[in-house]
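Our preliminary data section would be incomplete without showing what the modeling component actually yields. Below, a chain of 273 amino acids is followed by its predicted structure, encoded as tokens that our downstream tools consume directly.
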Amino acid sequence: MLRSVLLIITLMTLTAPAMSAQGLHDVVQTGDAAAVRRALATGVDIDQRDGIGRTPLMLAAARGNGEIVQLLLAAGADAAVRDNNGVTTVMLGADSGNLPMVQSLIAAGANAQTPNSNARDAREFITRNVSAGQGSAELQRMLDYLDEQATFNRLYPPRPASATGRSLYAVNGPEELLDISQQPLTREQLQQAAAAALLKRGWSVIVSEPDRVVGSHSKHDIEHRVEIRIQPPTVRIAYLRGYEYVKPTWLKNLKQDMTVTMSRARSAPPAAR
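Predicted structure:
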């Protein structure tokens, strides 16, 4: 009897159909990250397209599901794909309003300036929401970021891979996290500390906002960019652009310098009124 049961289980395993690519589309649409992990483990074609030419990554981007987007990118999904109408992952992601997810897509190879079949890039694709009175602070920030990308790509167009085969621009570069949970400092003081750390190391401050400071530094004719994002209880220091092989020590030095600057700000006497 036991032998018969084992034989039946073996036959069921051998004859069980592998998940279809369309099945992966369906799983992604549920928003269940654990189910997506299980689906990816079956070896399904991750870039299979549906009836309108969209891949599972495009569906996840359209839903604004950053966790699933990261899973698909880590599994090798193509971030630069376009559907039958030329719509890109960045357009869909930007329309969802998830800025960190869009940044991940661009870091993985998507281009915010790639046009759709109507010759509209990602910024023009989502501008209709603003003109229709549906704008928000998050959407405006998305537009500002896409403007930054357009300016950067115009000044520093993507270059071919180097002789070593490495991309000249970073993809998911290293990062450092700084714990500020015990720092009784205002956002303005944290912003100033971030800018001071960048300037001390020879970076130019090109963006300075209450929740993020961006530095620029040229080396070997390539502009590197680093972002210090203030998100209490932590500060995230990460590369935005640069060589794929970058120096993690640069980020460690910025973290150390910011820690010193915050310490000085904390111990400084209050300004005279």
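The first helix runs from residue 2 to 15. The chain has two domains: 17-155, 175-267. Preliminary results of this kind motivate Aim 1 of the renewal.
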